Amino acid sequence: MADLLLGLQWGDEGKGKIVDVLTSNYDIIARFQGGPNAGHTLEFDGIKHVLRTIPSGIFHSNSINIIGNGVVIDPVVFKSEIDGLSKFNIDLKSRLILSRKAHLILPTHRLLDAASETAKGKAKIGSTLKGIGPTYMDKTGRNGLRIGDIELSDFKERYRALAEKHQAMIKFYDVNIQYNLAELEKEFFEAVEALKQFTFIDSEAYLHDAQKAGKTILCEGAQGSLLDVDFGTYPFVTSSNTTAAGACTGLGIAPNKIKEVYGIFKAYTTRVGSGPFPTEDFGEAGDIMAKVGNEFGSVTGRKRRCGWLDLVALKYAVQINGVTQLMMMKGDVLSGFDTLKVATAYQYQGKEIDHLPYNIEPENVSPVYKEFKGWKADLTGMHSYDELPSELKSYIEFIEKEVEVPIKIVSVGPDRKQTIMR
Ligand code: IMP
């Protein structure tokens, strides 16, 4: 059996912290989609570390970490992650394994991402520019290169054919993208050599055998449900299935083998990049959330847009993923507000609706809010649910009632220890 952990909003919910907290219960942690657009932040013993492609179980000595077939890997970012982990003395080579079917991000994929975004002008997605979209396009277009191709004798020729095609495409965009391909390729092929020290596996077979042997597996999602290419706020989404189904296609785990689905959400909402965000707050409240919550992208450093919790969107994500347990992050950031707001419905075409419609652009929907009394207490040193202020308990219990799923973890700070289990 496998359990699944996903973000329910627009990413940055704090998945890295929770995977890290839960890891001791699992033999295997497996990433199933996305790539180095992710930045999973872990904090423990005064150390802060951001993981990009490597699963968040890497700091626990008893877990095997798998990068599944649904992930896209940039060897250059991967190598820098490996180099960054060297100071922790982790036996990476025995604890980190890669699917042969995972696709490779080429330097020209990154350039294509930049060309495509520049050509879009004002309509740009706000991509992290890590080459994610172009790599998934090559995957579904059946042109991509995979980890397993590195083992083939003609890998360099295959690389060259694809890179040349990309160069022609970059020209087609007719935008001014400056690059030195020779330098980028040198870095790429050095990183590919570093990648070769790791074990490449047929991960679906490995995970099948692991399940038969009774091993416990945690599938780690990246980004969030509202960035899913099918169910998110298209076209302002990422290029993979960030929802539960992505774990099946991105690892080869059958749907009936998934047991618990842990849904992670922030006590408020953030979004980075372009696209609709009905509960965005452009005033003081949004600024306070950004400041207190340190809402700056862990990959790009961009300031995140902030706003109130949106229960319409949260319910939608819970339904699509079949969430069985909720985990609420960053409750501590809301301390100090006199009043909190939560969107419980949308005004849409003259009616009040409680589901997410096709178009949630501001001219189509406006949120209907319920207000809650805030609390002043600092939560960051609290260790049990009983200690939490009664106003926060009312907030939590209201969410549970609306969404019909229990909130099992309340996080009150970035450190592993600042985690309240219910
Ligand atoms: P891309 O996946 O880099 O192409 O970015 C597409 C959209 O998803 C942009 O709005 C990004 O800001 C957003 N995005 C991608 N990855 C993450 C993430 O890990 N956290 C939050 N937003 C993300």
In short:
Helix content is 31%, strand content 22%.
Description:
Strand 3 and strand 4 form a beta hairpin. The strands form five sheets. A ten-stranded mixed beta sheet has the order 9-7-5-2-10-1-11-15-19-20, sandwiched between helices. Strands 14, 16, 17 and 18 form a four-stranded mixed beta sheet that branches. With 422 residues, it is of the alpha/beta class. It is built from twelve helices and 20 strands. The chain has helices at 15-22, 75-85, 92-95, 107-120, 132-140, 155-173, 181-195, 203-212, 245-251, 284-292, 311-321, 390-403; strands at residues 2-7, 28-31, 40-44, 47-51, 64-67, 72-73, 96-99, 103-104, 199-201, 217-220, 258-266, 269-271, 305-307, 309-310, 325-329, 339-348, 351-353, 365-373, 407-411, 419-421. Helices cover 31% and strands 22% of the residues. The structure holds inosinic acid. Inosinic acid binds next to helix 5.
